[in-house]
Amino acid sequence: MTTCTLCGSEIKRELLSAYAYTESGLPNVILENVYRVSCSGCDELDGVEIPALDKLHRLIVHELVHSTQRLSGAEIRFLRTFLGWSGKMFALKIGVAPETVSRWEHGTLEMALASERLLRLYAASGQHDCDYSVEDSERVEPTRTTPRRTVRLRAAKAGWEPGEIAL
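Below the sequence we write its predicted structure tokens.
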């Protein structure tokens, strides 16, 4: 039994079959086999236990980079922050004004296909375990499609693995 460090009461763990991981900034990432944790004695502890966060984010990046669908504004922002870039730094890397990056991320301006391909290559090169090439970037669909894909990821003993991914 695990106890709360604040009140000493028992911490409850409930296995969730599906959890919408909106904390990532992405509305379409579903995590499987994660635990909701809460304290039975106080309201201070109530949340979801997400193991191996770095591995999880790397898998999300892998799924985004390898998708043939165009990136949404939230996905562009996720990749930029994964790379550790401010909006201004990203603008310098891509060769656009910082206002353009903001418009891409807010969905008021569509990112040019060439810029999107470059972002995917940057994101892939930011991971030593992501095999992605210029030829792969050519598979990206030239126009946006709807509805947005849902990415399902399953917590496993070795970290994270793809769940039922509907791309």
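The domain at 53-150 is CATH 1.10.260 (434 Repressor (Amino-terminal Domain)).
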